[in-house]
Amino acid sequence: MSLLLISGTSTDVGKTVVTAAVAAAAQAAGRSVAVCKPAQTGMALGEPGDLAEVTRLSGVARTLELARYPEPLAPDTAARRAGMPLLSLGETVAAIDTLRDADLVLVEGAGGLLVRMGEFTLLDLAQKLGAPVLLVAAAGLGTLNHSELTTRALAAVGVPCAGLVIGSWPTDPDLASRCNRDDLPRVTETPLLGAVPAGAGQWGRDRFTAEAPSWFPADWRP
């Protein structure tokens, strides 16, 4: 089993679509994929969440969600407000281990690297699992600061960054976005693996799975 954790520089940067794209690319290469979302917020029980979207786009059938909270807040805050138990690091690691028969297990975080998914952050989980983190970044102003802060946090505790992916690349990028695409790998000292076209999350599965592998380097194996 290979493990890859997927985090963002902030919320709403495209983590779920990137997760689906990595899953589609891995499946196109003949690898079996499972996806775990430890904590989902802002959804009632029975409503389709991020994992349903990953399945819709990529066709991944094996997914695992450990906790769901109704309010759209950080998971630990949402759990406390709902009077529900916080996820622990140990139970999350144990749940991910049940997916070990997949060739690749993707774990999608909540918001940024240090958002608490319970009693722990995605950074804590990456350290415990000894797994790299793929970082999803925005295209526009502010992304250089957010991205460098995040890659420095990873480096400070020895967690490898598997690379950067721009979660939504504009159809008509402005000057800041064009400059950021050149500057991101320089300031973070991390390779920019690719960019997902804006609106790709609205595509149907056939188009998404056909195009997703082209968004990453041909020699990159997630």
Automatic annotation (TrEMBL):
Q: Which domain of life is it from?
A: Bacteria
What this chain does, per the record?
Catalyzes a mechanistically unusual reaction, the ATP-dependent insertion of CO2 between the N7 and N8 nitrogen atoms of 7,8-diaminopelargonic acid (DAPA, also called 7,8-diammoniononanoate) to form a ureido ring.
What reactions does this protein catalyze?
A: (7R,8S)-7,8-diammoniononanoate + CO2 + ATP = (4R,5S)-dethiobiotin + ADP + phosphate + 3 H(+)
Q: How does it assemble?
A: Homodimer.
Task: Name the active site residues.
Answer: K37
Q: Which UniProt keywords apply?
A: ATP-binding, Biotin biosynthesis, Cytoplasm, Ligase, Magnesium, Metal-binding, Nucleotide-binding
User: Which residues does the record give as ATP binding sites?
Assistant: D12, V13, G14, K15, T16, V17, D50, E108, G109, A110, G111, G167, S168
This entry's Enzyme Commission designation comes to: 6.3.3.3
Enumerate the subcellular locations listed in this protein's record, separating them with semicolons. Answer: Cytoplasm
Q: What class of enzyme is it?
A: ligase
* Designated gene of the protein: bioD
* NCBIfam families for this protein: bioD
What name appears for this protein in its UniProt entry? ATP-dependent dethiobiotin synthetase BioD
Q: What organism is listed for this UniProt entry?
A: Nocardia rhizosphaerihabitans
Detail which positions bind Mg(2+). T16, D50, E108
Instruction: Please state which protein family the record places this protein in.
Output: Belongs to the dethiobiotin synthetase family.
Pathway of action: Cofactor biosynthesis; biotin biosynthesis; biotin from 7,8-diaminononanoate: step 1/2
Binding residues for substrate? T41
